[in-house]
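Entry 14. Structure prediction run on the chain below.
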Amino acid sequence: MELTVWRTFVTVCRLGSLSAAAAELHHTQSAVSRQIAGLERQLGVPLMERHARGVRPTPAGEVFRRHAVATLNEADRAVRAARDARDGAFDLPLAVGATPSLAAGIVPEAIRGLLEGAGSMRWTLLPGLSGELHHRVVAGDLDIAVVTDAPPGMPDDPRVDRRHLGLDEMVVVLPVGHPQAGRGPVHMRTLADQTWAEDNDGSAALLRQHAARAGVSARIDLTAADLLGKLALVATGHAIALIPGVLTPALRPDVTTAALVDPPTRGIYTITPRRDPHPSAATLIDRLAAAFAPARPVPAAHRPDEQGV
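Output returned:
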């Protein structure tokens, strides 16, 4: 498949318009339409659908778009690396993956520490769920991934090296003004009548397990597409949610948190390819381990005026 066509498809998705994509790419609208149609014939599935204001990807198109963006980014890096090698300025870029909550603070901070010691280095950070990141490490797309053992757990894969960094306690995120905000550790029974929102199966499993230990059930009535969507549902008062404690310092100002009695925990790990690891991977892992040693305290409550976010 031609990467030019992939770029056209990604541009159409980003702009939501065939004509806008054609103008940006300096093509005619009919040429853009033909490229999208040809791509759909190659894949055997419809990728775009029309709506009142333009076009948007179908469910299959959205899945393809995410992979296409990653492929195009990697292709761009390959071109830059080849040109750097030609110019005598070659350096090995570092590709890092992390779950969304870890990509929101812990991992970028560790990368900053790495760069302070190593100097200039090309690097990328790809957020994703643990299973997806594991596959990308095995495939060679990532040099290191920071993942968790939240359900469904981590595979025992001889192709990767795994290092345990520490434990992360889950907390409840609440809209500002919620009756339980700022009251210290909350028992799950107190929250049994609340509406919960979830964005992935692993977090939902942790919530259900915690509720079952307390002898109640959690009403997961709302589903969000991602972590940002889940926080938006909480901020607007539609639900409360379970989130990783490491995310607390990066929360938006219109939500707060409460610690749980006997909270669910998840282990945080790094995984790297067993063969030919990146020269900077070990240093980055040490930086990450330092963030969890000693165990990171999880604030009992997050208050926007104290966090300054």
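The chain has eleven helices and eleven strands.
Filed with the rest of this week's runs.
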